[in-house]
Amino acid sequence: MRPTPMEDNEKHISQLTSPWVIYVVRCRDESYYTGITTDLTRRIAEHNSPEGGARYTRPRRPVTLVYSESAPSRATATHREIQIKKLRVAAKTRLIAGYLRSKNPQVQSHEYPEKMPEDGSS
Predict the structure, then answer these.
(1) Which domains does the chain have, with CATH numbers?
(2) What pTM did the predictor assign?
(3) How confident is the model over 36-69, as pLDDT tens digits?
(4) What secondary structure does DSSP assign to 27-66, as a single string?
């Protein structure tokens, strides 16, 4: 049986170890939204609540957490968020697919990588 979106969200959230988190949610229309937070549980709940969330996700609810990684500082998290936002959809999909396929707990925590994977754009 496939886990519910809420169970998926909780599984991803429990893997994180740093105060700053970069996350990607998949919206109802299959688009992606990337953000940063210090409280991933609260932020995902805000995205799905009637009175909260980002302007982009409000008309695209519900959202499901599909990717998250830790960052050591707000500056690092912001830099990584910008890197992910600049990726083309295909590259984001590959990033998310690799994350979801990962079975190793050390890989799933996604400590901040030194280099962003290439998206094939020039």
Answers:
(1) 5-108 (3.40.1440)
(2) 0.71
(3) 999 999 999 999 999 889 999 999 999 999 999 9
(4) -TTS-EEEEEES-HHHHHHHHHSTT-S-TTTGGG---EEE
